[in-house]
Amino acid sequence: MARKSGKRGQHQRFYKGLLRWVFLLFFASSMLLFALILIFRFVDPPTWSWKLQRELNPPVDQSIVSKHEWWDLQYIPPAMQLAVVASEDQNFPRHMGIDFKAVQQVLKEAERGRALRGASTLTQQTVKNLFLWQRRDWSRKLLEGGLAIVLEVLWGKRRILEVYLNIVEFGPGVYGVAAASEYWYQLPLDQISHNQMARLAALLPNPWRYHAEPPTPYVSERAVWIEQQMDRLGYVWLLPVTGG
């Protein structure tokens, strides 16, 4: 009996020690992530998770030469900002990181047998691009939602939009609206038309499949819809974000 009790005690000490190390690892990882979020509130990220994963594992088994140019939000044309908001997250000025109405609508559509579509906000996409992995699963979505709320509190809308517009992918290895304009139109961002900006926004669901120039039929149709949404929303829609 004493020998069995001794083994049981060893097992208990082992599991307690293991749990302690798991907790410490989780705590250290959380603190590191929190520190990075605070740093990136003021410092432009030199790289990010999505970019690194693309370079290590490109979708079509080809090497990537990354193209990126950072523009502060004050220099990004309001039309480009509005085009992306109109295309990706029209409730961006209103929600706190998670658009619960959009999530409810997706769940209702799924109950009716429709294909499950994404309901990620710009904030959630920023979190995913900066910190998380590509594969879709519930653990990523839960972490994405929690960190999105943290970003809303610590960063605010203006910084979230600025970072998103500078790190989101617009083509194979093309990151940010400034690099996208040069890549697709060979023009600086502040010299392209509203339709060209809408075409860039139309690429975001799948920047490896669609082309802004010459535009695919989908991109042309999507750009027309985006411009209509821009007219409907108006630039006043972005005032709570930009403070302009």
Automatic annotation (TrEMBL):
Subcellular location: Cell inner membrane
Name of the protein: Biosynthetic peptidoglycan transglycosylase
Family note: Belongs to the glycosyltransferase 51 family.
EC identifiers of the protein: 2.4.99.28
Cellular component GO terms, alphabetical: peptidoglycan-based cell wall; plasma membrane
GO MF term list: pentosyltransferase activity; peptidoglycan glycosyltransferase activity
Reactions it catalyzes: [GlcNAc-(1->4)-Mur2Ac(oyl-L-Ala-gamma-D-Glu-L-Lys-D-Ala-D-Ala)](n)-di-trans,octa-cis-undecaprenyl diphosphate + beta-D-GlcNAc-(1->4)-Mur2Ac(oyl-L-Ala-gamma-D-Glu-L-Lys-D-Ala-D-Ala)-di-trans,octa-cis-undecaprenyl diphosphate = [GlcNAc-(1->4)-Mur2Ac(oyl-L-Ala-gamma-D-Glu-L-Lys-D-Ala-D-Ala)](n+1)-di-trans,octa-cis-undecaprenyl diphosphate + di-trans,octa-cis-undecaprenyl diphosphate + H(+)
Stored InterPro entries: Glyco_trans_51, Lysozyme-like_dom_sf, PBP_transglycosylase, Pep_trsgly
Gene3D superfamilies reported in the protein's UniProt record: Biosynthetic peptidoglycan transglycosylase-like
UniProt-listed HAMAP family: PGT_MtgA
GO aspect biological process, one term: regulation of cell shape
Membrane topology listed for this record: Single-pass membrane protein
Protein's pathway: Cell wall biogenesis; peptidoglycan biosynthesis
Keyword Repeat: no
Function description: Peptidoglycan polymerase that catalyzes glycan chain elongation from lipid-linked precursors.
Group of enzyme by EC: transferase
Residues in coiled coil: none
Annotated ranges, domain Glycosyl transferase family: 66-230
A Pfam family it matches: Transgly
